[in-house]
Fold these 3 entries.
Entry 1:
Amino acid sequence: MTVKGKRIKTVDVHAHCAIPKASALLRRPGAGPAADGPLTLDGQMLADRLAVMDTQGIDVSVLSINPNWYDADRDLATQVISIQNEGLAEFCASHADRFAAFASVALQFPDLAAEQLERGMKTMGFRGAAIGGSVGKLELADPKFHPFWAKAEELGAVVFVHPQASGTAPFNDRLKGNGMLGNVIGNPLETTIALSHLIFEGTLDRFPGLKIVAAHGGGFLPSYMSRSDHGCVAFPAQCTPGVPTLKPTEYVKRMYYDSLVFTPEALRHLVAEVGASHIMMGTDYPFPWVSAPVDHVINTPALSDAQREEILGGTAVKLLGL
């Protein structure tokens, strides 16, 4: 890919995969449209995946596995993460010119997750960790997870937050019916809630060095974040004094987001709210949300060439050390 004749490295920070052995151990399919098939990383599937990347103009895919093990006990979770991380590390080491990865962690056991993250970054080449937007009925801002956040900050890890199917039964019932509302509304809403709790419960004050990347353009939060600034002003009795210490919008602008917002106007707006240097290209592969992710960035008329370069790969190269 070139921008005004300059060759740039394009990076997809939101690309899924699955390790069949781990899925078999959990006795559940990997998170994909057809079980593990389109997500596996060997044989013909690898050739197919590289062909898609080449067609889309993507040089490097940063792989992550959607957590579906947060209900597993400690022994099973340890085995699953070991299989996944060893498989991912071996694969990326063998194809380092085209792939990098986020480690999997058993976040339901924060001390174990911290150990897995440290090992993954120090000995296995991972760039950080991929986690869900909630763990069971707990928010990521729950004090239970402070050991994980502390380790992530200490290591300078990039933490990729991807929504999980969760919520109360009455809420989920409202998302039933036509239109796949559990995904198109539920997923970005989960991300919005997760990030908002990290802000309002003081997690981002306690761990100011965290590097968080939110899937799907950060859900609904960046597009309507100014309401968060006004909530505690309008209703101070419902907020803890001094928490957070800054305006919520300042935390939103510290975090990073993928470019999966579908239209040029949506991408222009996201850039206007958080800055091009905090947006990275994401495809959600193999889910067919976008067919031309590079063109989505190139053809957004409001962007400068420098901003296009940042989104397409410049920011990811710097943040992830690619």
Entry 2:
Amino acid sequence: MVANRGPLAGLKVIELAHIMAGPVCGLMLADMGADVIKVEKVPGGDDSRRFVPPDIDGEPAAYLMMNRNKRGIAVDLKSAGGKAVLRRLLSTADVVIENYRRGTMERFGLGYETLKHDNPGLIYCEISGFGRTGPYAERGGFDLIAQGMSGLMSITGEAPGRPPVKVGAPITDITAGILGAMGVAAAYAHRLRTGEGQRVDTSLFEAGIVHTYWQSAIAFATGVSPGPMGSAHPLNAPYQAFRTADGWINIGAANQANWLRLLEVLEATDLAAEPRCAGNAQRMSHLGELTEALGRYFPRRTTADWLERLEAARVPAGPVLNVGEMHADPQTRARDMVVTVDHSRVGPVQTLGLPVKFSETAGGIVRGAPVLGQHTREVLGENGYDRAEIEKLIAEGAVVAA
């Protein structure tokens, strides 16, 4: 088995999750060293295996991204043998991650109360659309629905009155996975002190809500729900994108010192004496006029020219990159956020790296995503099944081995 020496090395995680939110949680734990065993359904495996195009030599790019660093087995949970296999795995696991609808695990005979009886220290992480309590607990969850109901789509877009726009990335899926991993780490710290496991419950809905901190603060204070502002900030100005001679640039000149330095770079120091620009409150009150005034200066030079001048003046600024440009950026590379990992079938594959760095327990990406059932024999052997028992399970269809 390939070793990952991250801070969670030795933690055994069973991932009963598909597509994105649950797999993000497993991915975060795996990148930090946990042994994450992904249990895929029979037939077909994770639904993201069918998210094509694109693919890399027949392997779906989406699946490769979300499941690198994990080992994979395939189990038919509708069969008695498959349920027995999973229950044995869970009896010695530290963590289980699941993102089924409420009641699914109970119907399999694998709900938390049952598993806790076998394994009192088990950390049981549930990621769902709306959480396991409340009037929406029975509903399924999708990122688009959660973005709309959490308020995110009401603050995303160019201006009020236009059609609603979602954040380009599936942000509630990804954030719910990160929140789940954070909850697992906290529950693990508690277990180390007490020996006690527990349930960890988060949702796409809550993952969307936490992204409204600034807008919720405004609504609580004023009773008015803020709307979309394009790239502008609801509390500081100027803090937004401007068109240049050849593209776009983001300017973060929100505090007074940076504002004055920006005016020097723009050669627009006369704006410093303008009462509507005197302080942040005045600039926010006249944001449209401010944007129009500054917008006349930036097209005079290229993005690269402005960035050089702004960096020299210590004004926070940055280009608006596309995803490919971000991959090639020297800071992305220096932080190991694009790495190459070997896949058992297609060879070297590029993927994204671990976004948290540790001084003593590095973590990282050490294996490619599994093909369906790649580690079935290996994992069952580690959990007490002999060769004959494994082959019998395969023959009867309770498990699938690559």
Entry 3:
Amino acid sequence: MLAGARLLLIAALLSGASIKSASAQMKGPLVLEKNGSFYVGGKMTEIEGRAAMTGHMYVEYMIPARKIQPYPVIMIHGGLRSGTNFTGTLDGKEGWAQQFVRRGYAVYIVDQVGRGRSGLTEKLYGPIRSTDAKGALSRYVQQKKFNLWPQAKLHTQWPGGDEMSSPTVMALSASQLPEIANFRLQQELNRDALVALLDKIGPSVILGHSMAGAFLWPVADARPELVKAVIGVEPNGPPAHGVEFTGPPSWFKYGPIALSWGVSDVPLTYSPPAATASELKFVQQEKPDGDDLVRCYRQAEPARKLPNLKMPILVVMGEASYHAPYDHCTVNYLIQAGAKAKLMRLADLGIKGNSHVLMLEKNSAESAGAMANWLGKALPRPRAAKRR
């Protein structure tokens, strides 16, 4: 009994010291064991008689000096952007990458295939989609003025002025990059490169923003044993049919099928199997789940399941974003397909007023903390090996 009491006391002291040490990591200099970069995936090809790489992905990594979390976090940026979205805010604060590193996670930040440091050549990937700084104003900066979706009026977290000449708007515009125009090709290329990254570094958490949401499900489907959790930060959606924002009074216009496999436009493993996307049948709600929300599409019953999406899944949504009317549809679709999915409405946690680029806004650290807290509860720590 005495020995047992001593062990409990030692464990309590160590736990207290660990909590104190972890808290200290949130302040002061960022201490890394390693920081560097590498490339994964891709193959050699030939363009006009010259050898060139295609399909490769640039990866930057930060390994904390005190790595207390068992699985690294892979961060995948959204459309027309690069991995720099995760390494700093528009007003000069640390980004989500540093926030997770301070919490003891190794972090891997990618530039999507055909983007930024991963290289974009029209002769390799086909037509290119150009950036649009004016379009960014209506979605991320001047939401209240344009008033295209019901929640736009709630935006409060933009850092700095909202005119095109404002330093933060200029910084946002400077961070935009051209991309491969063919979205299905983007999904295929990035799925393959991310699978190669998982095969290289091992079991991980994948975190994708916006357009990268369509990559998350095929990657988790391809490597369910390596993807320990999925965090979709306002992931590409809603399921099946696209939505356009028209402003009041109708707000929403429903378009054709944009994600033919439900939450992605590339094949997913369904049970019973679907040989082609046309075998999936989608139906729309007669009434939305609440005021100011779209009418979701889901599978017609009996719904096929997504058996490989067996890991914890979190969908994170900002209060004022154009995703606010429909991110619940993605969660509903995944739950119907048998996945363990949860919707995190940041406003329910007191994190209010965010647009779609919430990692760049004033309360970026708070949203990172909310995701890290969920992850700490969702992922059991690996059991220590028994002593012989």
